[in-house]
Design goal:
The complex is a heterodimer of chains A (225) and B (359).
Chain A: E1 5-7, H1 8-11, H2 14-19, E2 27-29, H3 34-46, H4 50-72, H5 75-92, H6 102-120, E3 130-132, E4 138-140, H7 154-172, H8 176-187, H9 192-198, H10 203-220
Antiparallel strand pairs in A: 1-2, 3-4
Chain B: H1 3-14, H2 20-32, H3 34-51, H4 60-76, H5 81-88, H6 93-99, H7 101-121, H8 128-140, E1 155-162, E2 165-167, E3 185-194, E4 201-208, H9 220-230, H10 236-251, H11 260-271, H12 275-285, H13 293-305, H14 309-317, H15 326-338, H16 342-353
Antiparallel strand pairs in B: 1-2, 1-4, 3-4
Helix pairs in contact in B: 1-2, 1-3, 2-3, 9-10, 10-11, 10-12, 11-12, 11-13, 12-14, 13-14, 15-16
Classes of the chains: A mainly alpha (225), B alpha+beta (359).
């Protein structure tokens, strides 16, 4: 008998999806919840199954890469963090005791690596329209403005890019910790309780950091109305 | 609502971290207070601006490239399988040692000392007949069940049969002339050495020595074994029994003060495949719903995901003391609309109606 499946995203409210990290936009089986599948994969990987570990990687690697890419703004750095995070997970999987979800454990590794990277490179970007590709080449985002699609408005697109530039500069003014909490809350949509768990701190501390970050951004971007 | 409180709540509100009642109260306040309304509008404008530059998904090329790089790197990493197998241990032995590094270190030191002593007597010869009797017995006799009072390894230290004599390398004792009443089973043979052209041969082997521990469930050593059994997915019956015992202890308020027992029950509730085990874990966690948010979260997850309606129904009944929690409120709303079981939907809706104001 085929297993009935449902897609969580349209059913759970956004706030609920925030409360339960790791399940966003994923197909979940009613008969065999994903957390149990995770447990099976983890146990198999702990027993040495590379296939099981690869399956775990495939489950979480897109969100890991997205987080690293958005936080570092560099494809090269994001790839390095991605690689180091999963290698660390592979080496230390034996110490995973199921006391939290695998998602939380994995995000702990990734956020620590990102924080290290952000602390090392805590310099403001001079030109935020310049992005670094995986090959280490610099590419000006403004180059992509030339678009010949029907209805495309180059001025509007340029304005959007400039706005993105300003927002990026404002985000760069935050401390690495504030940037991380804001990222996890605003861009990744996690609940403060989950953020506290990932960053090994209390929900209250995460909340205070979020408040501080939001006030700073407001100060930087007050004229955007 | 005072303006000071409203100003504090605006940021939580725009980030969706304010519960519905508090949100309604804030909205009501901003209708009457121009200053707070302006403040709210500023933050809402900030959110709108941020929404214009959403996070983009990594390109398929970047993802594929990252996966290939990772695959190559993983290929070069020494496979942890053997080490992990040793860590996890088919019988849970090494998991126990890992969780008690002092005991592990102690065993290692004792092993070294006894091994050294054994070396001195290693060359002593003994009756060849004893060898034949011992090996024969090891193959054919049932497993002995000694009753030690301490947690001992299930695989005995290496023993050597040298020159036809059976010697215990860990204690140095030589087998007596009289045949033993029972010899533990041999786990494997780890080394064979022939001595020149003589007929002498040295065979090293490991024994499986099942152990039994009897004692009160309050005994820390028994507790430790129960915890180990609760995390051991190899035997569902043993796992079920251990979770039931731990849950009983917890529900009676004994040995469950935020420690490993409570954690073991939360793990069982989240991950165990057997609904009856999850139900037992749930019972054990009941006294801690109000005081421990981790327990509360585990129960909320169970309500949303557990495939067993019975487990979800039990979990629902446990939430009464914490219905003021905004997360509980949200989960109840979802259950009232989405749960496949009509009784649970009705009970959730009823709980929402009777709910006190959220905090």
């Amino acid at each position: 008998m085929p297993t009935a499946t449902l897609i969580l995203q349209p059913i759970l409210s956004p706030r609920l999806r925030q409360m339960l990290p790791g399940i966003q936009s994923k197909k979940v089986s009613n008969e065999l919840p994903e957390r149990i599948e995770d447990a099976e994969l983890i146990r198999a990987a702990q027993s040495g199954s590379r296939t099981a570990f690869d399956a775990l990687v495939r489950r979480y690697d897109q969100s890991v890469l997205r987080l690293a890419l958005h936080l570092t703004g560099s494809e090269q750095d994001a790839q390095d963090i991605y690689q180091e995070a999963f290698l660390k997970a592979y080496r230390h999987l034996g110490s995973f005791r199921f006391e939290c979800s695998f998602y939380t454990w994995m995000y702990r590794i990734v956020t620590n690596l990102c924080l290290d990277q952000m602390r090392r490179k805590k310099t403001r970007r001079e030109e935020s329209t310049i992005a670094v590709t995986a090959q280490g080449e610099e590419r000006d985002l403004l180059d992509s403005v030339a678009d010949r699609r029907a209805g495309f408005n180059p001025e509007q697109e340029l304005e959007r890019l400039r706005l993105g530039d300003r927002i990026q500069s404002a985000l760069d003014m935050l401390s690495p910790r504030e940037r991380m909490v804001f990222e996890l809350k605003h861009y990744q949509g996690l609940r403060l309780r989950a953020i506290g768990e990932i960053l090994n701190t209390s929900e209250e501390t995460a909340k205070n950091t979020l408040f501080r970050a939001t006030r700073k951004l407001r100060g930087q971007l007050a004229d955007l109305r | 609502m005072q303006c000071d409180k409203a100003q504090l709540q605006i940021i939580a509100y725009i980030h969706g971290e304010l519960d519905e009642d508090a949100s309604a109260e804030l909205e009501l306040h901003t209708l009457a207070c121009e200053r707070c309304a302006t403040e709210l509008e500023v933050y809402q404008a900030l959110q709108r601006a941020l929404a214009l530059t959403p996070v983009e998904e990594p390109s398929p090329n970047l993802l594929a490239q990252s996966r290939i790089r990772l695959d190559q790197a993983l290929d070069q990493v020494h496979s942890p399988s053997l080490w992990l197998r040793l860590q996890i241990g088919a019988f849970g032995l090494f998991a126990q040692l890992r969780s008690a590094p002092g005991v592990a270190a102690g065993l290692a030191v004792v092993g070294f000392l006894l091994g050294g002593f054994a070396g001195q007597v290693w060359m002593q010869h003994n009756a060849r007949t004893q060898l034949a009797q011992s090996v024969q017995l090891a193959r054919n006799t049932p497993v002995a069940r000694p009753m030690p009072q301490t947690l001992a390894p299930q695989i005995a230290p290496v023993q050597s049969i040298h020159g036809g004599a059976l010697e215990n390398a860990s204690t140095g004792s030589v087998a007596a002339d009289n045949a033993p009443t029972a010899v533990p089973q041999i786990f494997n043979v780890s080394r064979i050495v022939r001595h020149g052209d003589t007929h002498m041969v040295e065979v090293q082997y490991n024994q499986i020595v099942p152990q039994t521990l009897e004692g009160s469930v309050d005994d820390p050593a028994v507790q430790q074994l129960l915890l180990m059994a609760a995390g051991n997915g190899t035997d569902p019956v043993v796992q079920d029994d251990s979770v039931a015992l731990l849950a009983q202890q917890c529900s009676q308020g004994r040995y469950c003060a935020g420690g490993p027992v409570r954690t073991a029950l939360m793990v069982a509730l989240r991950y165990d495949r057997d609904a009856s085990v999850r139900a037992k874990a749930l019972d054990g966690l009941q006294p801690y719903v109000a005081e421990d948010t981790r327990v509360r979260d585990a129960i909320l997850e169970s309500l949303l995901h557990d495939p067993s309606a019975q487990v979800r129904s039990s979990a629902l009944q446990m939430l009464e003391p914490v219905e003021a929690d905004s997360s509980v409120h949200m989960v109840l709303e979802t259950l009232a609309q989405q749960d496949p079981n009509p009784q649970i939907r009705a009970a959730s809706a009823q709980a929402l109606l009777q709910m006190p104001p959220t905090q």
